[in-house]
Amino acid sequence: MTRPRIPGHEDAPEASARMHSGRWVNLYDPSPLDIELADWVRGCSRVDRWGGQSIPEHGWNDLCHMMLVERILVNRVWRKAPREARLWALMHDLHEGGGLGDIATPYGRVLKAAGLDELKQRLDRALRLAAGLTATPDAETVATIKRADQIAAVSEGVRLAGWPEAVARSRIGRGYDGPLWRGPLQPLDQAQARLAWTKRFLLLGGRGLAMPA
Fold first, then answer.
1. Backbone angles phi, psi at 139, to 5 degrees
2. Tens of pLDDT along 136-164?
């Protein structure tokens, strides 16, 4: 089956969306120059994982998840991870903050045929450049962050979403049989999450973002 062509910036100007900052961003083919990182951080603070079906009163939002992945990366998977890898772990789902949201895996399998992966790659490239990173992460960084993400997802599924551990390991972790994350999993509200995430981003040397007012 031939995959549909994803339009570019020039032939799909109607795909532009107005962000909180007032900037307009073409969501099919964004330019790094149009990216205001604070817009995407704001969006991610309002994206709850697990379809909003987690157990705690506050949802487990994207920023909480990305902070967990960065923590797992340096504590469990790649203790000497370079700064850029740590920053990308902290940013790896930031593309979800522009309206894409956290797409549940069953939906993602369907949307993949429509070019979902390419859309994410375009968004990721623009976000990375806006944050002062190289356009594309190397293969080792991608694979290692995926490993940390896998541990985070299984741990969240069991501890925050109530999945039976065997089912979470099989379906979410695709057979992951290592230890779960047993450290803190404290959901934060939107403002708290933006503050904590931004502090971490700046501590790691990220660019293009200031502390929220």
1. -60, -40
2. 999 999 999 999 999 999 999 999 999 99
Render pLDDT for 59-89 as a digit per residue (tens, 0 to 9): 999 999 999 999 999 999 999 999 999 999 9
Q: How many CB atoms lie within 10 A of CB 127?
A: 23
Rounded distance, CA 9 to CA 141, Å? 29
**Residue 211 is assigned to a structural domain of this protein:** no
- Residue 8: the pLDDT is 67
CB burial of 8-39 (b: ≥16 within 10 Å; e: otherwise) equals eeeeeeebbeebeeeeebbbbbbeeebbbbbb
Which of 198, 168, 190 has its CA nearest to residue 47? 190
Angle at alpha carbon of residue 137, lines to 134 and 143, rounded to 5°: 165
Least confident of 4-18, 81-95, 174-188, 189-203: 4-18
The answer to whether residue 30 is domain-embedded is: yes
CATH of the domain at 39: 1.10.3210.10
Indicate the helix (H) or strand (E) that contains 123: helix 116-130
Domain assignment present for residue 50? The answer is yes
Rounded to the nearest 10 degrees, what angle do helices 62-72 and 83-91 cross at? 150
Share the mean pLDDT of the chain: 93
* Model confidence at 197: pLDDT above 80: yes
Residues 141-179: b if buried by 16+ CB within 10 A, e if exposed = beebbebbbbbbbbbbbbbbbebeeeebbeebbeebeee
Q: Which domain holds residue 40?
A: 14-203
